[in-house]
TrEMBL record:
Residue span, RDD domain: 23-149
Superkingdom of the organism of origin: Bacteria
Main location: membrane
InterPro entries: Pra-immunoreactive, RDD
TM region positions: 30-52, 64-82, 118-137
Membrane topology field: Multi-pass membrane protein
Subcellular location: Cell membrane
A single GO cellular-component term on record: plasma membrane
Record protein name field: RDD family protein
Amino acid sequence: MTDMQITVPPADDFPPAGRPLCYGGFWLRFWAYCLDIIVVSSLNRLIVWPLFRLFDWPLARNGLFAPAAVAAAVVFYAYFVLMTKWFGQTLGKMVFGLKVVDERGEPLTWLTVLFREVIGKFIAKKLLFIGFLFVAFSEKKKGMHDQFADTIVVRE
């Protein structure tokens, strides 16, 4: 026997193209979304509601177009759109090691992100959240919003 030692390079030394993609599954994405909802709710309670109280605006969210409801929706969509565009992931996805990428390998464009986060998720929610169940049953773990925007969620 020889005293040769075989060493395997760390995973980070492999080129990204040589690494197989590991898709983000339903439960990881579900828990990441739950964490994101906590973040968005906290932003509303720490920033938006105090501003409404400061200017003595009504905090009642009785209607769809009540000022507080509109402000909450703006914070919600701004959080998801901006985080996905700038970082490719929200804070929830960061914690769970997930990232949104373009299926063709190109950088995410504003149109892609808006289509995925606003239009695609709106349709998926209006169909009784069935659009999100696609993640559990599709081959590449793509939700309806991912299919609309040609994106996939991968594990980092």
